[in-house]
């Protein structure tokens, strides 16, 4: 007995036990955990009934740990919530008690989760070994010397639209300057009449980085040199769609050689998507390497992304459910007759806004996959693809038509729902107030850094992020198969399990896997960088 007391005095161990385990035990079982036996049988192995031997305290502790572990598993608990704290008896005992209390409180707030399903949703696609590969031909490099030393030709460009639309035009402006052998003056961002944003290039993008990355391809100047300031530029406003390098040279080369300065406007989709390999690589270099956001934007965007990452993986959603989107697409939000009438009235006042096929009815557009998904459809799609209720979602986009009510299907099913306004601390967004391009850039950064990305509709931002994520190693990007899946959405007789199975099957090849641009004519290399800008080899260029 003296030996037993000595053993007790030497060391005591503590185990934090979740309250659900305690409440599930009978009073006799609870007593057996809390009360020490009066006598120990010397011939017992390590415990018999409720009698514990103190000859082997570590074995006793192990047995008790296994008992608690079995209880946890039977309740469906995550084993990670079990915390084993062994501390020497003395001054640290009070601290151990505090920790035990914190663990108990935390355990009560957590609920069982099907971990295998969650991990499946966050699983990344097989990149098939593709890596960035921008090695240029000897012919391209040889021509660079004359282009970079030239001092007689200058290209001025005015780009329009939203921030992501402007990005696309800047990419093509660099390529056109290369085709003409001209220096490119930093593109002018046209004031957007819708958002009233008067930002300049250097406000949105890192100008010094832009110049350094393209130093071997095109001369980038902040302004026209003094020798050409008074020159009246040749202005071209009506460049046709999808023109070739040959067309560019035949149309502009003689004129820029004569006048010295060429001014181009409205470059959206003017340059062909199918260019020679070196020019396609230049496109990728501009889009994925040269166009880096300005430091203040990059700093805040990365800060918000880290806040989303702090508690595990997150999904970024680009929701295209603003009023102007419904008006332009010829679709309806599906909220109520009141909101449908708002869209109809706006479309009647401004028929020029309609960009969808005007000969199709709303229902025909919907079934053809030409309409944005509303919040209810996005919710059903995500649930069918296995998104857990605990998923943290970053919402990128403008104010939805219908306000919070338009988002309620999503927020009910996925309560961890954030946007930049909700993540930012007081005052962090103030420097960017009323600057739509800044806000779009922040959305871009947080979305690009997400573990999974999905856009409810196409558009410049979705396409840009798709290419960026592919170039970064084919990070998961869900492309809703709207045309094939929507008939199942309206089939109310379909059981939920069967619906989920069909939706998963329809999206097996739409999760961001490498896809060859050459498999479909007219695809943009900055959206599908394989094979021109990515190849299967270890060396990265």
Automatic annotation (TrEMBL):
Keywords: Carbohydrate metabolism, Fucose metabolism, Glycoprotein, Glycosyltransferase, Membrane, Signal-anchor, Transferase, Transmembrane, Transmembrane helix. InterPro entries: FucosylTrfase_pln, GDP-Fuc_O-FucTrfase. The keyword tRNA processing does not apply. It is found in: Membrane. GO terms for biological process: fucose metabolic process. Its main location: membrane. Pfam families: O-FucT. GO terms for molecular function: glycosyltransferase activity. CDD domains: O-FucT_plant. Pathway: Glycan metabolism. It is a single-pass type II membrane protein. The chain crosses the membrane at residues 59-77. One of its GO terms (cellular component) is membrane. Belongs to the glycosyltransferase GT106 family. This is O-fucosyltransferase family protein. It comes from Gossypium aridum (American cotton).
């Amino acid at each position: 007995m003296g030996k037993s007391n000595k053993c007790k005095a030497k060391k005591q161990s503590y185990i934090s036990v979740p309250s659900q385990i305690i409440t599930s035990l009978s009073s006799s079982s609870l007593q057996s955990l809390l009360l020490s036996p009066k006598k120990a049988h010397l011939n017992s192995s390590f415990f018999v009934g409720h009698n514990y031997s103190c000859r082997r305290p570590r074995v006793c502790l192990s047995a008790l740990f296994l008992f608690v572990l079995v209880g946890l598993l039977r309740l469906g608990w995550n084993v990670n919530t079990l915390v084993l704290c062994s501390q020497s008896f003395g001054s640290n005992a009070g601290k151990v008690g505090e920790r035990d209390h914190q663990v108990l409180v935390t355990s009560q707030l957590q609920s069982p989760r099907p971990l295998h399903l969650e991990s499946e949703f966050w699983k990344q696609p097989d990149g098939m070994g593709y890596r960035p590969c921008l090695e240029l031909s000897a012919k391209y490099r040889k021509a660079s010397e004359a282009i970079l030393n030239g001092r007689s030709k200058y290209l001025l460009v005015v780009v329009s639209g939203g921030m992501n639309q402007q990005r696309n035009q800047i990419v093509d402006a660099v390529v056109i300057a290369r085709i003409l052998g001209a220096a490119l003056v930093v593109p002018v961002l046209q004031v957007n009449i819708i958002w009233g944003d008067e930002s300049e290039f250097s406000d949105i993008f890192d100008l010094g980085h832009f110049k350094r990355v393209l130093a071997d391809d095109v001369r980038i100047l902040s302004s026209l040199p003094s020798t050409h300031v008074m020159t009246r530029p040749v202005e071209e406003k009506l460049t046709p769609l999808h023109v070739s390098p040959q067309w560019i040279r035949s149309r502009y080369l003689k004129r820029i050689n004569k006048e010295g300065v060429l001014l181009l406007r409205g470059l959206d989709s003017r340059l062909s998507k199918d260019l020679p390999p070196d020019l396609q690589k230049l496109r990728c270099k501009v889009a994925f390497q040269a166009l880096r956001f300005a430091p203040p934007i990059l700093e805040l965007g990365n800060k918000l992304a880290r806040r989303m990452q702090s508690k595990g993986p997150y999904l970024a959603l680009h929701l295209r459910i603003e009023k102007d989107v419904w008006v332009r697409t010829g679709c309806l939000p599906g909220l109520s007759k009141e909101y449908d009438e708002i869209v109809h009235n706006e479309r009647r006042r401004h028929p020029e806004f309609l960009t969808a096929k005007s000969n199709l009815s709303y229902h025909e557009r919907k079934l053809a996959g030409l309409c944005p998904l509303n919040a209810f459809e996005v919710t059903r799609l995500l649930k069918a693809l296995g998104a857990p209720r605990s998923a943290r979602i970053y919402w990128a986009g403008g104010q939805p038509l219908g306000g919070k009510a338009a988002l309620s299907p999503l927020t009910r099913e996925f309560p961890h729902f954030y946007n930049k306004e909700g993540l930012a601390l007081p005052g962090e967004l103030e420097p960017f107030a009323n600057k739509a391009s800044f806000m779009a850039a922040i959305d871009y950064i947080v979305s690009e850094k997400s573990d999974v990305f999905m856009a409810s509709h196409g558009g410049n931002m979705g396409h840009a992020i798709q290419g960026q994520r592919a170039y970064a190693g084919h990070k998961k990007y869900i492309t809703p198969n709207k045309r094939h899946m929507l008939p199942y959405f309206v089939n109310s007789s379909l059981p939920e399990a069967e619906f989920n199975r069909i939706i998963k099957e329809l999206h097996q090849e739409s999760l961001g896997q490498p896809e060859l641009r050459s498999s479909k004519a007219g695809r943009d290399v900055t959206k599908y960088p394989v094979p021109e800008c990515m190849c299967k080899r270890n060396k990265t260029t």
